[in-house]
UniProtKB/TrEMBL annotation:
Organism: Celeribacter indicus
InterPro entries per the UniProt record, alphabetical: AAA+_ATPase, ABC_transporter-like_ATP-bd, ABC_transporter-like_CS, ABC_transpr_LolD-like, P-loop_NTPase
UniProt KW Cytoplasm keyword: no
Top-level taxon: Bacteria
Keyword tags: ATP-binding, Lyase, Nucleotide-binding
Pfam families, A to Z: ABC_tran (PF00005)
Protein name: Phosphonate C-P lyase system protein, PhnL
Amino acid sequence: MNIVLDVQGLSKGFTMHHLDSRLAAFSDISFDLRAGEFLLLKGQNGAGKSTLLRTLYRTYLAQDGKVLFHSDHGVIDLVRAADVDVTHLRRTEIGFVTQFLVARPRVSAEALVAEPLRMAGWSAERALEEARHWLRAFGVKESLWRAYPTTFSGGEQQKVNLARALILPQKLLLLDEPTASLDAGARAALVARLRELKDGGTAMIGVFHHPDDVEHLIDRVIDLTPDAPQMEDREDVVV
Ligand SMILES: Nc1ncnc2c1ncn2[C@@H]1O[C@H](COP(=O)(O)OP(=O)(O)OP(=O)(O)O)[C@@H](O)[C@H]1O
């Protein structure tokens, strides 16, 4: 399978101005990831899992190292890429699923979910049809589809979030505890969708509070706990 991501010597720290000190979130991380591979990030609280995902997504700027993403238009180092290129890749090739929906006032659940398809050129009608399919799959009740998610419960918002984030296959998908606050039915729908995306070639890096949920998807594990051996192959994995 083709390489999607080649991470070399990646380090990230935070300057704590009020303490006049610097905190290393992680340092010298290297790995690569191929199409269809699923990499689990694990480690104790504060080990740097979310920070690594955000650095790969370029929400945070790395201090050092390279994140070479093999995009449809060639290899691009996400650490040094122009903001405009990063924004374009986020719309077309790199997805990030967090625990939180960014709801917008007076935008219905179905419109929010259909939006990535509309931006990819789908007709309004087809996009809405597909959006409703995924809202149903994740267990959002039909009476809520045309309502505004700003007032939804935490779990309902997360289901809308997942439907929106996973409706369009991406080349690289970053997942930060997407199962938090989901009921069993939605967790099963999520795992089924991730399986489908993986089989279709999406490369994934995820942090899961309960990795048992995705055990059958995991190919490799990186443990960010200080002094832990960094990389484990699937055969050795105990999650
Ligand atoms: N924006 C920030 N400014 C300063 N320090 C930060 C920032 N974001 C994260 N940190 C620090 O970086 C370290 C790693 O945090 P991170 O959230 O990546 O850990 P995690 O492994 O995801 O933890 P958890 O399992 O608790 O969610 C923590 O010590 C945290 O306090």
